[in-house]
Amino acid sequence: MGRQREITALRRALLSPGVGLLTLTGAPGIGKTRLALAVTASLLDYFQDGSFFVDLAPITDHMLVPSAIAEALGVQHTEQAPVLDAVAYYLKDRQILLLLDNFEHLLDAGIQVSLLLAECPRVKVLATSREPLRLRLEHVFPVPSLDLPDMSASDRLTEVASSPAVQLFVERAVAANPNFELREENAEIVGRICSHADGIPLAIELAAGESDVLRPQDMLHGLAQRGLGLFGAGPQDLPERQRTLRATIAWSYELLSADEQALLRRLAVFSRGGTLEAAGAVCCLHGAVSIDLPDLVSALVRKNLLVLEDTTGREPRFRALEMVRECGLEKLNVLGELAVMQDRHAAFFLALAEQAEPFLNGPEQEDWLARLDREHDNLRAALRWLWERKDTELGLRLAGALWYFWRTRGHNAEGRRHLEGLLAIETSSVGASARAKALFGAGELARIQGDADAARSRFREALLAFRELGDKSGTAQTLRYLAIVDFYTGDLQAAYSSAEESLALFRELPDKQGIAQGLNLMGQIGNLTRDYERTRLFLEESLAISQALGNKWHVGAVLTNLGITALHLGDLMLARSCCLDALRIGQEMADRYRLAYALALMAALAATVGQPEQALRLAGAAAALRDVISAPLYPFIQAEFERFLAPARESLTQEVAAQAWRDGSQMSLEQAIECAQAGEMAPAPVVSTRSKPVEGVRGLSSRERLIAVLIARGRTNREIAAELVISERTVDTHVTHILAKLVLTSRSQVAATVASEGLLVSEDREQTFR
Fold this sequence. Notes:
The protein is mainly alpha-helical. The chain is built from 39 helices and 8 strands. It has a 5-stranded parallel sheet, with helices on both faces. A 3-stranded antiparallel sheet has the order 6-8-7. Helix 16 crosses helix 18, helix 19 runs parallel beside helix 21 and helix 29 packs parallel to helix 31. The protein is elongated and about 120 Å long. Residues 682-692 and 762-770 have low confidence and may be disordered.
């Protein structure tokens, strides 16, 4: 099932004149034997003297391989003549295909196969082995895992159902339980079960065979708790060594040298693999890094017990298949090595996190963030172990070093859970510095999640700790983040006071990174206090420093704020340029937090230039992304954002507006970015989607009502733009909306309508604007 591509390739190879020995290699349970049998059956008409199957699994002595072949062929031989000679004599002029199954434990017999083929030019050998036979004339065909479904596909059921791995699961599940059916509600679960099994057919079959007693969701839960060992014996007609996953792995494990066994089981502490450097530091064979470590790793890769991953341009990485890893952990536990290996693993990844920490704000941040991405599962495993053994000091150090990574990559809920859990442990042995840093990280992740009270509380604790330590840098950073919390909750006076003190401390240090961040915060505050010209100066200085330092993440943050300032000043070209640059940087850094804000800003821009449906699509996409990363907008900021979106909402019917929002919320991140990048600066022509005009001028939005009043007072669009500090293009857009909503055709008609409703006398400009 799902092997037609492989069967076609193998048939072509075996029918080629230049191929005499073809070896199928692959991990335990990958399906080498079944594939070889399928290929052999498909070639029966091409070998006039037949095809023969030779099971080598029961043989323990490589010298007995010729006898096994002779027995399969029915060749009679005497004790006086070597068996190999008798077989060669029989095969000399025959056209035969020999399938030699399970060769991995008899590799020394390879030379006998080579001699046989040299004597018998019309014979071909198809072998299966967990590693190559290492013969000069050998052609090797690695058997891959079954193709897994793309779990991010929009049509989840169709994608899952078309996966060969899932098709195998369904076939075996129906055999065990005729009522089983792949449906919309269980498709994702089945796909995840097959992914957990690494697409290994034996693992999938054993899992699906439990369908008579377990539902898919129960299987998945069991896998999370107990691993693939959850599944017991398979069909009785399987060889004993393949009836359970443990037996399958044990068969391979016993064939390894003592050093290979030690390395394989010790590598089991790695989650989703690791590098050679990490293996050397953690596994430490014979009490030190073994000089043979690269050779041992290569040997395990050849034996298909480790998988070498695509590492183009990076340090090579390898990983054990999940079923191999689980068996390795069991071996470690039995031998009493597990705790020691987990200690070494946690120590290595703590050192890595602390090594990365100072680089996450500089020109090398992309490389270090990408490295932490690759090791995220190992970092999680290290945190779990430190938590289990209640090593609060090391746990806080590790979590405190990772908060910036978690925030940047959108793992806010996960990171906060780790930090708060460790901080809640009552202990007097934790260093003040580690605790202060963890308090700070917990405060920042709480802030990102919109929990202002918790954020303020944690920042105040961190501020007290940093001041007691005499840590001026920590004090300055914490003051800045306290100011951010006050800013987002609308206490602009408190925000300005803390931001100003923070910036002064950064200038004293001096800390250019801190200065840039402080200036950016002053700019954020300025955007809400309406001091736009001064704000622009703050932000431009911050941008220049951040660009010089190579801090791309902060460049993206400043660009977002500068785009807001440009919107307020009516410089829509600058606003769009800032938005697009922020989007690009967010993409390059996989920074979903920054992308969410850039998409929201693009939505505000689209609303300003008269593209209401585009505005609401982008706003919906931004909101959906914030939900995914647990980073909601604070009410105060949400209100500001809604003021920008108001014209878009009011120019559409509720149904059209709601549909545009839904369309955006259902986009993938890539689709949302493409949608934002495709937007035009020119205002779209407004065609009212309302069935009736609004009820006079009082039915317009507050901004439109103000502009209508100014039109009635005889102001030109240029004069209105100057008075409201917006661009003339924005005024043009609003006038177009006003005419469409009132179903009028001229400015004089607008003036007459305003006068007839008494707005020239009753409307106060500031009140109208608000």
